[in-house]
């Protein structure tokens, strides 16, 4: 039989290996989170960006104190006919949607611009659960602001999202009565996207996952499902356009896919702007 001292040395070696593995996994967790999310605040003069009528909605979620932004209909005095809930990319802020949404001339369109926890003026730690909760609480804050029950807001909802925001928009759509979802540069799933850079094994250590396939599968079960429109730049070096092509091929019944020939990951919103605004005017 091994001596007690030898058994002790084996146990110590095993403990060191387990501790090292735990440290590596923890390190990858934080590295993965820092790669996925890039929170930053607004500059001191951010209110100078506000177009007429823009409202800051302040509310509390499980992640802490949050701020979202509401842009009411440009050409209507009454309640909005349609509300577009907008989710930005991981390196952007809610107000980065202003160059697009302020060009909308549709009568009755309003916009609810969401910042993730930890972004802009919002507190907390960004992850899918906190983002979901913040978006739902922002909708409740809008309900209070408009003095309109959430049940009356639901039939008016649409969503738009870019990159990570496309996943957040789809996640939001699974919980709400959405008419149209516009996705710009979506991935199939966050782990499949991570596998492109880190390999399949390490991708499973990503701290969070967004599975756009699963969200679309849930939406496909609705009767009728929402309209889903995808725009993806063929020059996108971050999220390959083949991922959008895969989603469109797997859900052909309600997805329309537009390939943007000269657009990359950062320019796809501007490249698709006219088509996006035309879609919004149809609602």
How would you classify the helix and strand content by structural class?
A: alpha/beta
The arrangement of helices and strands along the chain is HEEEHEHHEHEHHHEHEHH
- Which CATH C-level class is it? Alpha Beta
- How big a fraction of the residues is strand? 15-25%
* Residue runs with pLDDT of under 50 for 5 or more positions: 20-33
User: Mind describing the biggest β-sheet?
Assistant: 8 strands, mixed
> For the CA atoms, what is the radius of gyration?
21 Å
In total, the number of domains comes to 1
The CATH topology assignment is Rossmann fold
The strand order across the widest sheet is 1-2-4-3-5-6-7-8
CATH superfamily: Alpha/Beta hydrolase fold, catalytic domain
Q: How far is it from the N-terminal to the C-terminal residue, by CA?
A: 78 Å
What does the average pLDDT come to?
A: 87
Count of helical stretches: 11
CATH architecture: 3-Layer(aba) Sandwich
**Helix share bin:** 40-55%
Overall 3D form = globular
In short:
The chain is of the alpha/beta class. It has helices at about 5-35, 100, 130-145, 150-155, 165-175, 190-200, 200-205, 210-220, 240-250, 270, 275-280; strands spanning about 55-60, 65-70, 80-85, 110-115, 155-160, 180-185, 225-235, 255-260. It has an eight-stranded mixed β-sheet with strand order 1-2-4-3-5-6-7-8.
SSE blueprint and pairings:
Elements (H helix, E strand, L loop, with lengths): L3 H33 L18 E7 L2 E8 L10 E6 L10 H4 L7 E6 L13 H19 L3 H4 L3 E6 L1 H10 L4 E7 L5 H9 L1 H4 L8 H9 L6 E7 L7 H10 L4 E6 L7 H4 L1 H10 L1
Parallel strand pairs: 3-4, 3-5, 5-6, 6-7, 7-8
Antiparallel strand pairs: 1-2, 2-4
